[in-house]
Design the sequence.
């Protein structure tokens, strides 16, 4: 028997195919799949922000949803304590250092952490370790293209 006509709801561990756009309150689109390949992921695998995943539960193929997440639900509040001033000589001499450049850092535990250079002078480099969208209200638009329940082998 074919499942072609059945619309399965988004549930935990379901494989979901969707189009997604992420925009700021001023309408600036930061990311979108609507003009390209859809996103395919398994619920709970960490591909999507947890707040967005929660809003997808129960949706079925063909559903469209707009979700507005405040900073606490999306990428977190902006934390001024995550801005650090580092010695310029702690960076490789041939590294391009200028405001806006994103650099990958490794924490003491070996975790990769991105930081954006805010400003620099001869002795210091000020680096922001907040997510670039921290403190921003995020508007997601999604269109569910397909849902494959977790218990199938498809």
Sequence:
């Amino acid at each position: 028997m074919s499942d072609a006509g059945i619309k399965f709801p988004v549930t935990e561990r379901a494989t979901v195919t969707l189009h997604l756009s992420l925009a700021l309150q001023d309408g600036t689109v930061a990311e979108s799949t609507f003009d390209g390949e859809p996103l395919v992921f398994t619920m709970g695998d960490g591909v999507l922000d947890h707040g967005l995943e929660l809003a997808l539960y129960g949706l079925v193929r063909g559903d469209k949803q707009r979700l507005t997440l405040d900073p606490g639900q999306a990428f977190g509040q902006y934390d001024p304590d995550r801005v650090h001033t580092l010695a310029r000589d702690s960076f490789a001499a041939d590294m391009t250092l200028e405001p806006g450049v994103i650099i990958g850092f490794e924490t003491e535990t070996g975790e990769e952490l991105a930081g954006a250079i805010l400003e620099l002078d001869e002795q210091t480099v000020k680096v922001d370790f907040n997510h670039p969208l921290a403190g921003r209200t995020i508007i997601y638009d999604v269109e569910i293209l397909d849902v494959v329940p977790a218990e199938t082998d498809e």
